[in-house]
Amino acid sequence: MNKLKKIKDFNSAADHYDSDAIMQSMIAEELIDRLHYIKINPKRILDIGSATGRNAVLLAKIFPAAEIYELDFSIDMLRVSMNKSSGFRKLFSSKKRYFINADMDLLPFHDNTFDLIVSSNSIQWSENINALFKNINNLLTIDGLFLFSSFLKNTLIELQYFKEHALTQNFLTIQEYAEILNNNNFYDPVLIRDEYQNEYDGALSALRDLKKIGVTKSDESHKSLRGKNYLLKLIDHLDQFKRNDKNILSYEVIMAHAWKIRNKEESVIRFTKS
Ligand SMILES: C[S@@+](CC[C@H](N)C(=O)[O-])C[C@H]1O[C@@H](n2cnc3c(N)ncnc32)[C@H](O)[C@@H]1O
Fold first, then answer.
1. pLDDT of 100-137, one tens digit each?
2. What would the CATH number be for the domain defined by 3-262?
3. Cα–ligand 1 centroid distance for 226 (angstroms)
4. Hey, where are the domains in the chain?
């Protein structure tokens, strides 16, 4: 994966991210909402792939006394978050909020730093999810919680069938996530699988939608495939998945949480199918 190109893509998406990433917003809200039902009172929270700070606002409402660290490798996403209106600033006035421009694959913190680590719709961009989960486990305090959402194997299945369009994100299965959590000393995991389908009036608007939120083909080695012929083939391919004359993009989503140490209650892995 060409990381510099990814950073550039997310930088270009930053100014319109809040209005474009509607589905991501719904997923993130549902994810953060789960904290209302989990017994935890974190002093320090890290949001990995924080983008424009939407999670930080939700987290600050639930945990008004906590310090919140927003981490993103896109400086423009962080800039948008920092410049949010005075209403948002007021929400954070009595507490500390930090902006960290860094790569999630090189997390710049000491062990045992955070009581809660959150990441919505971002860890699929990691180059090594196993190493990332190991680092996250190290960064958590003893009673710490990791809460995340990401996309699963069948996400953008309509594009995956298009052989030339190699999307290089890590879309794993829910079983693989369960294994990675288990291998990295996370306990009492709860994993939920959900499906979303977005409908579009044409293949081009589906592709534009992906570009707007920073999802583009990141492999520069296939430049010859770009251009009009490539685009026509891609549109033709997407049209094969049309339903009721609408183009479709599918998303398979995981929402999960797990603890750094085992709770006293019985440890069970629960899979829920919607
Ligand atoms: C799809 S957005 C999700 C943003 C937000 N959490 C949400 O749910 O709406 C993914 C974010 O992760 C960031 N990101 C992607 N790869 C990253 C990396 N390796 N290190 C840090 N941030 C990264 C992008 O810049 C982008 O802001």
1. 999 999 999 999 999 999 999 999 999 999 999 999 99
2. 3.40.50.150
3. 25
4. 3-262
